[in-house]
């Protein structure tokens, strides 16, 4: 890998050029950049530049929030939705809580035009739903998750189900099957970790 292709690391300073603007902002550290994203002062669609990159590129292509978003799109997730989910959950997770996986519905249900995301952390399972006012997060600590299930819908899609307290079941349909398998695997690991 050449220096021009090097992945951003701590200590690099970033300049940001907002879409439609002429003058760049910055320079910012990676922590400052994440804070600006969380405060919605910049977007993953804005451009970023740092020494060694060679040209301005959209933030989501280059930086991916210090590679964290890239980590979550290994299974074909919608990068923009993952960025939004990451930002929303980053605002509410506790100190030391780590985000492990983000899954995104491939298509919305028949009655809904909004896509849902599932976000797994080491302490919670979050369900993010877009509504008219923004995004709604439903948080469930792992100890409240009685079981998780997966079902193949065919055509490369599946349903991930969450059983809470042995009585309430939530189904999230139309998730790419690769993501459903990963959700199921990680949820089993998280639940086992809670039991220990």
Features:
2 domains; single chain; 5 helices; alpha+beta; four-stranded antiparallel sheet; disordered N terminus; PH-domain like; 196 residues
Structural features, described:
- With 196 residues, this protein is of the alpha+beta class.
- It folds into two domains: 3-62; 68-195, Ubiquitin carboxyl-terminal hydrolase 26/29/37, pleckstrin homology-like domain (PH-domain like).
- The protein has five helices and eleven strands.
- The strands form three sheets. Strands 2-1-3-4 form a four-stranded antiparallel β-sheet. Strands 5-6-7-8 form a four-stranded antiparallel β-sheet, with helices on both faces.
- The termini are far apart.
- 26% of the residues are buried.
Brief digest:
The protein has 196 residues and is α+β, with helices and mostly antiparallel strands.
Could you list the spans in which at least 5 consecutive residues all have pLDDT below 50? 1-10
Structural class: alpha+beta
CATH homologous superfamily classification of the largest domain: Ubiquitin carboxyl-terminal hydrolase 26/29/37, pleckstrin homology-like domain
Number of strands: 11
> Order of strands side by side in the largest beta sheet?
2-1-3-4
- How many individual helices? 5
The percentage of residues in β strands lies in 25-35%
Q: What layout of secondary structure does this protein have?
A:
Layout: E1 14-17, E2 25-28, H1 30-38, E3 47-49, E4 57-58, H2 59-62, H3 68-71, H4 79-90, E5 99-104, E6 116-121, E7 124-131, E8 134-141, E9 145-154, E10 157-164, E11 168-176, H5 177-195
